[in-house]
Write a structure and sequence with these properties.
The complex is a heterodimer. By secondary structure, chain A is an alpha+beta fold. Chain A has 3 helices and 7 strands. The model of chain B has no long low-confidence stretch (mean pLDDT 85). Classes of the chains: A alpha+beta, B alpha+beta.
């Protein structure tokens, strides 16, 4: 009786192991079904989702104009104090004073990519970009000014 | 402290002096995080396990007191990072309950679908990591293959793979991706054709079975007295599924079974999670074709202010009951906030289920509790 159980145990054990090894063996001889992406080598063909939250950017058009009015809604919405809006007063040719941004300082090292600033922005001036390769040698390089030098606000945005 | 001969001696009669105290963690690959277990051993038998916490304490509850009701939701993604979407849902439900915000049906359906996808992804990762703890390295990659499809869906729709922050009070942050339904259906077909591979590789494997069956038994009474929830308690036969007991969103409209096992050992906890993945697929199948058209976010005020009072909501995460308790003074930030996390209560049962067993069985007992350390420490 004991011997019978012992042999049954051995047969069961070996068969269950073979069953598992058949599965792994199947993938061994079907390399086309392997889905591993060789990341640093496939940089050229790597497709990130367009919604991927990698960093905050401010899109500029061909005339180097952006849509940011300097209302600080993003600064207030940010939970981490990532964004700091520095405003100035621009004097238009008619002599009117108008508030505009001097710099939109964005500290990438504090950002958690929660997207709350983009949702809060009333003029869609900032958005999330899918770039995720952020490593730099010096962390001061992670503090960025989002508006390009010499840029100004697009006409018609209040 | 001990020389070689003292360890090899039979220490059963030596009492407290013969005990050997070892530290497992905080940097140990099997604890999946910075969990520190002080294990008191008698030879190879565990006498006592004392978890030491605090290595990843970020005082999230205190942090939330200085964040507004829109901002504090994203922090909860960092607690139980494997079911971050469900954590966010619990917090959003609390704000909606307190302010009586109407949520559009479309948002409710998408929330439930994403919650179930998160649950599957969490169980997949657990399955792979658990098998790896017990020495089987291959299932890890098989489980991650399916999980990768879910993270791709999350990346398309929510914009992130792990800490989504897709739910806002009143609905969703933005509408679902146009390919969402197609991709989820592709995932369901893939999952259904591949789920048998887990049974070949893990469930029916004789080594896995003999390492988990009868190991770390938790009775139903103990599960209740330790406050265990989720798959840990359901493996002991305690019916505790929040989705069934206190249905939120559209869980009362869908058909699914609460998976219950009675053995209460590590293998039962494994089986519960595998079966739960199939139930989640069942829920998604019922909802994915019926997502109603309409708004994805309801009308909310610009500044959210909860009325004065105390509020509590609970949701079922992949690990059990997640509760949010907020005391509001009527301002824009919570006066006091408390998270009831499932991992903390489940961990408290570890000493009970592992004491008396061999140290090799501790891996199976601890692995099947499905501990996520940031969830325990907060």
């Amino acid at each position: 009786m004991f011997l019978k159980e012992y042999i049954a145990d051995v047969v069961n054990g070996v068969s269950s192991l073979l069953k598992g090894m058949r599965k792994t063996g199947y993938y061994f001889v079907h390399p086309k079904e392997i889905i591993t992406e060789q990341y640093p080598d496939n940089r050229a063909t790597l497709l990130m989702s367009e919604r991927f939250k990698g960093e905050v950017v401010m899109p500029h058009d061909a005339q180097n104009e952006h849509a940011c009015t300097g209302c600080t809604a993003c600064e207030l919405a940010c939970p981490n104090g990532t964004i700091k809006v520095v405003t100035k007063f621009e004097v238009s040719p008619e002599g009117k004073k108008k508030k505009a941004i001097d710099a939109l300082v964005y500290r990438l090292e504090l950002c958690t990519m929660c997207n709350l600033c983009v949702v809060a922005c009333p003029s869609d001036a900032i958005k999330m970009a899918p770039n995720f390769e952020h490593s730099v040698f010096d962390r001061t390089k992670l503090t960025k000014v989002l508006n390009q030098p010499g840029s100004k606000i697009r006409e018609g945005i209040e | 402290m001990y020389n070689q001969t003292e360890i090899l001696k039979d220490t059963s009669e030596l009492g407290a002096d013969g005990e050997l105290v070892i530290n497992m963690g905080p940097q140990h690959p099997a604890t999946h995080g910075v969990l520190h277990l002080v294990v008191t051993l008698n030879g190879e038998t565990i006498k006592k396990i004392e978890p030491h916490l605090g290595y990843i304490h970020r005082s999230i509850e205190k942090m939330c007191e200085s964040l507004t009701y829109r901002q504090f939701i994203y922090v909860t993604s960092r607690m139980d990072y494997l079911s971050s979407h469900i954590n966010n849902l619990g917090c959003a439900l609390l704000v909606e309950k307190g302010m009586a915000i109407e949520v559009p049906d479309r948002a409710k359906y998408v929330r439930v679908i994403l919650s179930e996808l998160t649950r599957i992804a969490s169980h997949e990762l657990w399955l792979g990591a658990m098998a790896m703890d017990l020495g089987a390295f291959t299932p890890f990659f098989y489980a991650f293959r399916e999980r990768e499809m879910i993270t791709d869906i999350m990346e398309d729709t929510c914009g992130a793979r792990l800490t989504m922050n897709y739910i806002v009070p009143g609905g969703l942050m933005y509408d679902i991706h146009p390919d969402f339904q197609k991709k989820v259906k592709a995932f369901i077909t893939q999952f259904k054709s591949k789920v048998t591979e887990y049974e070949d590789l893990v469930t029916n494997n004789v080594i896995f079975q003999s390492r988990t069956k009868g190991v770390g038994i938790l009775t139903a009474e103990d599960a209740i007295s330790y406050g265990c929830t989720g798959p840990v308690a359901r493996a002991s036969g305690v019916s505790c599924d929040i989705r069934k007991l206190y249905p939120y969103e559209v869980y009362d409209k869908v058909e699914f079974d609460e998976v219950l096992e009675t053995a209460g050992d590590s293998f039962a906890r494994y089986i519960v999670r595998v079966k739960e993945m199939n139930q989640s697929i069942r829920i998604i199948e019922q909802l994915i074709d019926n997502i109603p058209e309409g708004d994805f976010v309801g009308k909310t005020k610009n500044v959210l202010k909860l009325p004065k009072g105390e509020f509590y909501t609970r949701v079922e995460t992949a690990r059990g009951e997640f509760g949010v308790f907020v005391v509001s003074e009527g301002g824009t930030t919570p006066h006091r906030i408390k998270f009831r996390s499932p991992g903390f209560s489940n961990l408290s049962a570890l000493n009970h289920i592992a004491a008396g067993s061999k140290i090799g069985d501790l891996m199976a007992s601890m692995g099947t509790l499905d501990l996520v350390i940031p969830d325990i420490d907060r």
